Amino acid sequence: MMSEIKISLRRVGKINPLSIDDFIKEKGFEGFKKAITLAPDEVINWLEKSGLRGRGDAGFPTFIKQRSTATSCYTCEARYVVCNADEGEPGTFKDRFVMENDPFSVIEGMLIAGYAIGANYGFVYIRGEYYDSINKIKNAIQQAYEKGYLGKNILGSVFSFDMNVYLGAGSYLCGEELTLIESLEGKRGYPRIKPPFPAEKGLWNMPTLVNNVETFSHIPFILENGYENYASIGTAESKGTKLYCVSGHVKNPGVYELPMGTKLRELLFNVAGGMKEGFEFKGALLGGAAGTFVDESILDVPMAYETLKKQGATLGSGAVIVVDNKTNLKSMMQSILSFFKHESCGKCVPCRIGTTLLNERIQETKLSEEDLNWMLQQAEYMAKYSLCPLGQSPILPLKSVLTYFKKELV
Amino acid sequence: MKKVKITIDNKEIEAIEGANLLHTSRLNGFDIPGLCFHHRLTPTGACRLCIVKVEGMPGVVMSCTLTVKEGMKITAFDEELETARRHTLSYLLAEHNEEYDGTYYDEMMPLIERYGLASKGNRPIPAFWHNIPPVIDDTSPVLTYDSSKCIKCFRCIKACEEIQGKGVLSFAERGITKYIVAGYGKWGDSECDGCGECIQLCPTGAIVEKPNRERIQVQQIEKKVVTTCPYCGVGCQIEVWAKNNEIVRVNGLEGVLPNDGRLCVKGRFGYQYANSKKRLTHPMIKRNGTFEKVSWDEALDYVALKFNEIKQKYGNKALAGYSSAKCSNEENYLFQKFIRIAFGNNNIDYCTRLCHASTVTAMIKAFGDGAGSNSIEDFETTDCLFVIGNNIIETHPITATYVKRGKARGQKIIVIDPKWTPLVKYADIYLQPRLATDVALLNGMMYHVIQEGLVNESFIKERVDGGMDTFAQLKEVVMKYTPDVVEKITGVKTDIVKEAAIMYAKAPTAMIATGMGMSQQTVGTNNVFALIDLCLITGQIGRDRCGINPPRGQNNVQGATDVGASPVFYPGYIQVVNEENRRRIAQLWNVPFEQLEPNPGLTTLEIMDAAHDGRIKALYIMGENPVITDPNQLHTIEALQNLEFLVVQDIFETETSAYADVILPAASLFEKNGTVVNSDRRVLRLRKVIDSPGEAMPDWKITNEIAQRMGVNIGQYSNEEAIFEEIRQAAPILKGVSYRRIENQGIQWPCYDEQHPGSSTLYKEKFNTENGKAKLFPVEYTEQSEKPSSEYPLVMNSGRLLFQYHSATLSRKSDVLNAYVNESFILINPEDATKYGITHGQKVNVISPRGNIITTAHVSDEVLPGETFMPWHFHESAVNALTRNEKDPLSKIAPFKYSVVRVEAI
How far off is chain A from B242, nearest CA to CA, in Å? Predict the structure, then answer.
């Protein structure tokens, strides 16, 4: 059955995450071994044909990023692979699940990516609060070195790869790729101007590939089992499986790996066991704070990038925060807007002042129609003129909550 | 610099490819608003006001982040953009305290006006800034920070980091409440050195200058004059503001060399001396031990009378003059003319003899020119910078900003200094040799150059006199300086000596900066010869961004010699003994050829020695303070007391003027027109800003009056320009320079005619020697004649600090500078401190064979064990009471860098 296929979580419960030997027994590094028999650009071709899209948030086709990082700047002395494990989007907890249960898959994915783009250094940027993930990834790296899967001339090939872990320090914005790179360089987390993009000028001005944990955990599977296999899962434009993070008053909240395009109804009422006793489904916030609210009208829409986009919703990180009949939506919006204000770095005018204004306004005891329209206007202005995705986000939850649940706010 | 065509709002513009789009648009009349952009900084993209639409790019783009590309089509102004800009400004207004007191330039106000937001009723967003507790930092001596006015544009942070290379400022907190901090918190506790770059670049009143703030209304400053900074040899171009004949502010002038708007704390805030109440205002004659105010006529007549008297009684050779590095070229020229015609001898010299005498002497012998071979901009772009005996960050701050920017681009820096200096933080290699062992170290480096096969033989064959033969002679000497020998003498480990030698030799381009550490020694000339040898055998000279440069200490120490204030050179570095030139000059000066003394005169310290043993009877001092600046203070004082007649012409009473018979009040550099020459040979304009106090007169007029009253004609000049016109005739290297040509930016000599653009790099075709080739001078290491003993176990080094200046006559009149540093100290290594029972902060007696002084001990590992360091600015602990006046045989300089001392706790 389709719902049986696991990619990121295929080894969960089958291995000790602290044991590289267990990992190897469960087809560990088979993907990498396959990759090094191909030419680096051929590896990227496989990723192209697989249809793999970035699992961080934006769903950007991975092969495009890899190809442009590989072909950027022939004279640059180094290229870097960075794993974005900063997992800051509220309601998202999938990356930690992968790192805590199968950290080696992340390493293998980075190895393949490094090979494909001609990089010899990799960094895993993990949010500082994820103590367990940090320990497990560090341990995985150490064991990989010991077994010769990291370091010079891996498996006797010409390919060498070194890896290191770098910790985040409490900034949501450092999950944005250019801000992450600033932080990796030891600087304060401010988003850079784009262009140039990381593929062209990233870490220390060298071409850099930044991908999410989940994305990297998919790459070995593709190499191991072929791109056709991967592309046979999912929808027309969103291939493979997705880790959905269900939270809220459902019977079984948690991380679920299902084929891309699984319907919300299936996810919530089958897999997550439906609503808890005494709670009625009202809707969900998809994609986290920088995501969109939906109501029951979306229950039968496949949860994939293109299908949700058609409905004006976002898949984002795959977070599904269930909203029920007892949820105070105004309070939820207050929480979301105060989050943005708190996390705003303050560099650009629209976001620095805009998030402050939105936060202030949503705290008003009574919100009128004008207030809500005014807030929407500010969020629209911010979406258009902010420097980075943070300022561009408040419009998403705001607009969607007003579309579906306006009555609850006025 | 390719020119391309772009279109802005349907208008075709010619622009430079790769130039910043916002800056280009503005230069072409498209006044796109922006607050965080400044053309001297990297673009930030924070204020979101400079939005434009670009054909082929989605949405809107910040024009400050784009560069000009052929065929670009831009929309700079349309309804959507203007509406968005207005909205952005209204956002800014909500977080910004717009209270304005007129004491600074506010860039936001005109934009508010322009977008119709001036009236509070018109504003869509209600203000909330008053709900955010403001952070006000008033702890810096030079500025105040008010976060309520801050628009978080990053300009100050970038100014500090990118322009000045200091990186002291950053933001604290995040989001709407963030504010600027210096260091970890309070400005006054941080490493901020008061350069004021942030003040100059802040677009609102968040960072404002403190001095004189209550008295300034920027729209009502009646006088703004561009002139040259009166302090060091960088020669920064400044815009001075005056109100009611008082200087109230100094800004850096952007867009011109050498400083492009940058200043240091002295240049920006050290002007207070000009209007000090302690200025000399009247001529004074000493009668019965006290100074009495007299009229100019009385004073000048008396001076002329006495000079003539002494000439009659003792002959021409009994008189001498000290010219001034703090006076203009015109004044120095006239002074040397005076000495040569009115005194009839060549006994003219000045503080250069105490400073770069060794450097200039060695360089002239080797290259034919005694000035730096490169330009200040090259400090940023050269591949390898070799800094020896030069605390460039403290003594030449603006040159150091170029160095730091070079470092940020990957420049390699080698620092050699017995004492730690701030540049060591930026150095790739730091060598810390024992004091006075430089010849051994440099010969040791040449040993490695030869061993590693890095000698540039083609350069030697083409451009060095005697080619490989003279090289062989040098090699014979240098190969004796094996690693063991060198390590034993200098204390520096072989591997880094070798690394430094290789780094310098292999660099595609390399520049040397050499300072007092090398020059102020009894072996100073030899030191520089060794340095020149290293430079020549590696071929690191005679090309762009290659050469050897002495950063000059005073704003006109270079110019004074250029125009002839020298016992051995006439204007333009033509030797006194050159008869043909003397004939030419005699004609120019309209005096009989026979009247001009054919033999070289006495140098500065020789003059003082001659005064001491009675050969010199009269001394005319202009703008010099030898009691503080000359070595062996007791000897100096005895010498001055031994004179029959001493005239001191200055702007303040000094430690030297106390011994004068006549004191003549002169005009400061802010009170006269003229020119000066900086470290990279640039002739720069001086312009009068304020009138002199009381009856003080420009130095050139005083000198001229004395001559006239002596019955001697040294020329009639209606103004300073007329004097400069004569200088052009006298000195071929300055012939092509005129006031008109340097109206906007100075010109570097040699400049032989009006079409000549000036010379940024010397020796590109040939050296200035007779056969056009440079000379090698092999030298051996010699020990100091004075050595540590049980009675005097330590060696004392001396030098300068950033915040005070030389004998501090000027700088200690500044409240700002005094707030930073105003006390003497001696640096002692922790090992020695323990040995001699001295603790940090303790008062100590420092004793040398010449005398003793009291100062405060600072225990520090900036100096090696066995060595100490004192700044010489503080007259109450006069370092020269301890130094000796032994001389370098060639340059006649004294070893300010090496005196044996004993330090005792009090």
Answer: 37
